[in-house]
Amino acid sequence: MQTTCGTRHNRVEAVLCDMDNTLFDLVGAKREACRCVVDYLGTGDPETLFLQFLRGVHGFEDHRNIRDYLEELGAYQPGTFEVCCRTYEDVKLDLVEAYPGVEETLRCLADAGIGLAVATDAESFQARRRLDKTGLIDYFEVVVTPEVSGRRKPEPDSLLYALRRLDTAPAKAVMVGDSLVRDIAPARHLGMVTAFAAYGDWRRNRVADVEVDIVLREFSELPGHVGITDR
pTM above the 0.85 mark? Predict the structure, then answer.
C-alpha cells in the first residue's frame, strides 16, 4: 500500500462510506454471534462457524453457511437451524455499535454541507437494519446496495450511483473504506480521493500496488483531511 496523502484533493463536496467495519465493527459482532450459536448447540467451535462465512460459497451473510456447519456437525434439523439463524441475527444486530466518533464526525460533515452516502455490499434489508440500530441512517442522503446498483464492489457501479445521486464529480468526492481492493482501488480508478479505514481492516491485508490518499487511524480524523477543522 502506498500513500499520497494531501496531494490530490481540493474542495470536497461528498463523502461515500463503506458500512461494515468502516462505520461499525461487524466482524466482532459476527464472531460473538457465532459463539452464541455454538453455545446454544452445546458443541462445535465458534471460529469454525465464523470461517464458514468466509469460504465464498454462499456469501458473507448467507444463512446457508450455518446450515452447512450444522450438517458437518451432524446436528442439522429444521427447528435447530431456525433457532441458530435467529440467534445469530439477533446477537449480531444487538452488538453492532458505531465506532467512537463516527456519529459526531458525520454530523460535522453534514453541517459543513458535505453530501453523505453509504456504498455497501450488504443487502438492503441488512444495511438499513444496521444503520437504524446505530442511529446513523438519517445522516446519509443515499444508501446504495447491490440490489440498487446492480453489482457488487469492486465493480464501480455502487460508487457511480451514489455520485450521481449526490450530483458530485468523482474528483470532488472521498471514498472511505476498510478494503483496499473493494473500496479504495475502484474509487481511485474513478478519480476519487481515497481514505483507507485502517482501524477496520480486520484481515490486515496489504496490497502494495494500491495507492491511498489518506490513512485513517479512526474515523474522526476525516474532517481534518478534507479541510474541515472547526468541529
Answer: yes
